[in-house]
Amino acid sequence: MKFADFAARADEIEAETADLEITALVRALFEDANDDLPIVARFVQGRVFPAWDSTTLDVGPNLCYEAIARAAGPNVDADDVESRLAETGEIGAVAASYEFGGQRGLASFGTGGRDGLTVAEVDRSLRGLAAAEGSGSQDRKVDVLFGLFNRSSPAEARYLARLVLSEMRIGVGEGTVRDAIAEAFDAPVEAVKRALQVSNDYGRVAELARDEGEDGLERVRLEIGRPVQAMLAQAGTVADALEAWETVAVETKYDGARVQVHFDGDDVAVFSRNMEDVTDALPEIVAFVEENLREPAILDGEVVAVEPRPDGDGVRPLPFQEVLRRFRRKHDVGRMLEEVTLWLHAFDCLHVDGEDLLDAPLVERHERLTDALADGVSKLTLTDDPEEIAAIEEVALEDGHEGIMLKNPESTYSPGRRGKNWLKHKPDVETLDLVVTGAEWGEGRRAKFLGTFLLSARTPSGYETIGKVATGITDEKLAELTELLEPEIESQRGKDVTIRPSTVFEVGYEEIQRSPTYSSGYALRFPRFVSVRADKDPADADSLERIERLAESR
Predict the structure, then answer these.
(1) Do the domain assignments include residue 194?
(2) What span, in angstroms and rounded, lies between the C-alpha atoms of 401 and 395?
């Protein structure tokens, strides 16, 4: 395909505003691409390399401006190009504003003239440009780009410049390409979708759909060394999880960097969430995997920075910013290895010993992970008890982690999807200041402590109950609270005590809902103790009127 033809089609696509029409135009482009189909499927998204390939052109704006200026003529320099960009706001329009073709230089000889510029040639030239390295590589890149621009018409230059700077912006996203492939080659969209998830290569999938149909698409498998997009989570509550699934899979949410680990039995490769190869920056993770992973596999996990605890009992996690000091470092890795230690927490298994596990339920994938990896596996707990979930969250927070993950035990692994099967739950950000009006003595080792506290909202005539809180409180804190509140006990019946309204608790919660259980007519879902508000008297606590407003605003 002539690059001029590709540019003309891109113009049509960019001018269209209706999604269905855009898909139809991309479909027609694919149908006419012939041998250049894999390239065209990438170019239309502004890609030169497959999505899984972290190779970049390594061409900055200034280098591109210089190449455009050289092709534009002796009276144009990079500053002129940048000035036009400031006026137009888009590099494609700037490139299209010049008349190229009159300049001669090393890169423009022996190329067959302007008419010979094809999609395949552009692809080949840009790949060669990406491979340039070492002394003089920047000059060679400018030469290559100058040669391409010098052979370009204004329309071709528009899309060449955008392609070089990854700014295609013609309204074609991944979903459009997926649907266009399915329509162009009469393939089931779900088969195309799955092949894209597994391969992360739109060019390859387009070619398979055309040449081998559904059978070819279904044969696509994960490959060790070729990363796929990570499955993503959305924010959610414990209530959301318990309402959606009979049983919830709960694990720690780590404050680290997402990684995908590939091990072929000999070599380890580690990729970031954006599928960038970060293997060289993480030598201790590589060594850990080599020592602990028993068979070839692809794992999903989190890399966390740690330091020894002051009391010498194990390690504690450090903030995410510490991970960044190591994560993409290319130089002084040895020195940084001594300054920042990283641990791997693996929580999922996508492939093991030649078998893809994307369609297996979460619980099975975790079992396979535990079988394959001797150490470093994140604990997964199955429960339908909100109190147990709260206790797991309490431990995670006390250990210095972000919170917890709530997952559907039956969920498959969907690369790149942010669905409702994985929920991330961090500590409650909404709180109320409520008065303690009662309590219960604990049991077992906590029998000498007040362990559950009755909370009330202020009203003009007194206090109305709204819930009880027992989570988020350590044994040490229970001892303090018992010492604080025991003198305020007004009466006792069995284990239940009535407490004079004198103390205000700050309490986090997930939701306020109507409930006949408490005299206020409301209840807090999953309340959590935050602190004692020693600076507040009961008269300063939250009123029932405010609680009603909060409940109605949801």
Answers:
(1) no
(2) 9
pLDDT mean across residues, the chain: 90
Nearest 5°: phi and psi at 273? -60, -30
**What is the C-alpha to C-alpha distance for residues 227 and 381, in angstroms, rounded to an integer?**
28
CB 505 within 8 A of CB 536: no
Do 406 and 454 fall into the same domain? no
- 3-class DSSP state for residue 479? helix
Is the same domain home to 419 and 455? no
- Rounded to an integer, the average pLDDT of 259-263 is 97
The alpha carbon of 248 is separated from its chain's Cα centroid by a whole number of angstroms, namely 21
Residue 481 lies in a domain: yes
Task: Provide the whole-model pTM.
Answer: 0.74
Q: Of 123, 144, 164, at which residue does a domain stop?
A: 164
Contact 103, 71 (CB under 8 A): yes
* Catalytic residue check, 424: no
Nearest C-alpha neighbor of 349 from the set 339, 360, 341: 360
The reply to whether 408 and 456 lie within a common domain is no
Same domain, 77 and 97: yes
Task: Report the domain count for the chain.
Answer: 3
Kindly name the residue from 141, 193, 253, 407 that is annotated as catalytic: 253
Cα distances (angstroms) measured from residue 209 to each of 32, 178, 541: 14, 11, 65
Tokens encoding 343: 């641990």
Phi/psi region, residue 166 (left: phi>0; alpha: psi -120 to 50; beta: rest), is: left
| Sign of torsion over alpha carbons 523, 525, 526, 531 | negative
335 Cβ contact list (under 8 Å, min separation 6)? none
CATH code, domain with 156: 1.10.3260.10
Contact present, 317 and 255 (Cβ < 8 Å): yes
Answer whether residue 34 is part of any domain. no
> What is the C-alpha to C-alpha distance for residues 119 and 7, in angstroms, rounded to an integer?
10
Q: 53 and 124: one domain?
A: yes
DSSP secondary structure string, 492-521? EETTEEEE-S--EEEEE-SEEEE-SSSTTS
**Residue 494: Cβ-neighbour burial (10 angstroms; 0-12, 13-18, 19+):** exposed
**In terms of residue numbers, what domain contains 339?**
232-425
Residue 196 included in any domain: no
- Alpha-carbon gap, residue 266 to 160, rounded angstroms: 41
The answer to whether residues 468 and 403 belong to one domain is no
Tens of pLDDT, residue by residue over 375-415, are 999 999 999 999 999 999 989 988 889 899 999 999 999 99
Run of H or E residues at 338: helix 333-339
Same domain, 332 and 471: no
Which tokens hold the place of 351? 């492939």
- Tokens at 306, concatenated: 């740690």
Q: Looking at residue 107, what is its pLDDT?
A: 46
* CATH assignment at residue 455: 2.40.50.140
Contacts of 175 (CB under 8 A, 6+ apart): none
